[in-house]
Amino acid sequence: MTGWITRWIIFLKGLDVANWEHFTEDELRCDGTGECKMDEAFMEALVRLRKDYNNTMVISSGYRDRSYNTVIGGSTNSAHMYGKAVDVVVSGHEAYRLLRLALVHGFKGIGVSQRGPHLKRFLHLDMMEDSDRSPRPWIWSYK
Asked: What is the pLDDT of residue 5?
């Protein structure tokens, strides 16, 4: 059964709709609104990446409501607002390993933040489509 059919059946039965292996709905919720509107295809790719990575992936940011994204100064066309991005707390060699695997798994937007304390370092991973506002593939670093 395809992912969206399974999730629709779970929704109709009134059960918890987040059934992503290795990830919880709570860690992917918007910090401002509590909503979790992650894109199913993105989550399926993230689960495949996690399995291949074979290590914990701590998510510091998942879905973001447009108003919350504005409050925190996020990009005006942030992939987080479409449920197609996560920020993963990772540093050093593990960040490099995760970045390489993300490319193999088809992640098209990769932001690298590897300065400062290790617990604040992260990789942004997204699957936005190529557009004038969000060219893909694209790898960038944060200041």
From this structure: 56
Q: State the pTM of this model.
A: 0.86
Question: Would you place residue 80 in the very low, low, confident or very high pLDDT band (cuts 50, 70, 90)?
Answer: very high
7-22 pLDDT tens trace: 554 454 443 445 789 9
SS3 per residue for the chain: CCHHHHHHHHHHCCCCCCCCCCCCHHHHCCCCCCCCCCCHHHHHHHHHHHHHHCCCCEEEECCCCHHHHHHCCCCCCCHHHHCCEEEEECCHHHHHHHHHHHHHCCCCEEEEECCCCHHHCEEEEECCCCCCCCCCCEEEECC
Query: Quick count: other Cβ atoms within 10 Å of Cβ 63?
Result: 25
Domains of the chain: 21-141 (3.30.1380.10)
